[in-house]
Request: fold
Amino acid sequence: MSARTAAPTPPATIGIIGAGRYGTALARTALRAGLVVLMASSRDPVTLGARLSLQAPGASVVTAAEAARRGDVVVLAVPLRRIRELSPAVFAGRVVIDATNHLPVWDGPPPDLGTATTTSEWVQEHLVGARVVKTLNHLGADELEDDAAGTGSTVRRALAVAGDDDGAVAAAMALVERLGFDAVDAGPLAAGAALEPTSHAFNGWYDRERLFALLTAPGAGPGRERAGPRPAGS
Ligand SMILES: NC(=O)c1ccc[n+]([C@@H]2O[C@H](COP(=O)([O-])OP(=O)(O)OC[C@H]3O[C@@H](n4cnc5c(N)ncnc54)[C@H](OP(=O)(O)O)[C@@H]3O)[C@@H](O)[C@H]2O)c1
Reply:
């Protein structure tokens, strides 16, 4: 498969499901990049609105259904153990970015993946009809905000994007680029294994060339010892 590239028109509106540590960091990063941000959690919208006015001023509180319908892309920023609470009908046909991870300390034992080999495929199996893409999961909330580079920056961190739907991958890559990162095509959704916790890519600082080399290296597997050093000034 030849490497896919970002869609020429980046998403203008992002829906975010989950307004915790990562969702709010993503909201601030997206607002800084000029996107319209629609956020949903499972809580009372008035309380969430009051909190977001402090934590992500400019983001709008909506229902999950509205975030999915109005967002050019919708990002899942909820604990993995709560994915099954999401209604598949709401996400059918939508570009859904799975930014979730299985972290035993937060999520407990891993879910029974059934026939899936990665958590993103498991998410896809639940969200039947959604166009699921794995990305934005393999850096921390602080890094997302700190490493997002302005346009014209010559040193940019690269993020990997894995998915089966070419159009959805192109949209997700365009979002990644718009947020201030270089996007690298990681292959099909199953290749999202290379972005999961314990992988080399997870939390490692790579530029485009080095991330591509890492993802295409034979035997790239668990371990973080190959994570690249952060360039000075980045
Ligand atoms: N924190 C990071 O640095 C980081 C980095 C990369 C990826 N991630 C991934 O992002 C996800 C969230 O992490 P986090 O650190 O932001 O966790 P968190 O601070 O606990 O926030 C989780 C958010 O999800 C909401 N939520 C839970 N169930 C929901 C549902 N059914 N519908 C809508 N919203 C729901 C929670 O709000 P209510 O309970 O009020 O609804 C809360 O706002 C995890 O999968 C994590 O692995 C986190």
About this structure: The longest strand covers residues 158-163. Residues 28 and 56 are 5 Å apart (CA to CA). The beta strands are 13-17, 36-40, 60-61, 73-76, 95-98, 131-134, 158-163, 182-187.
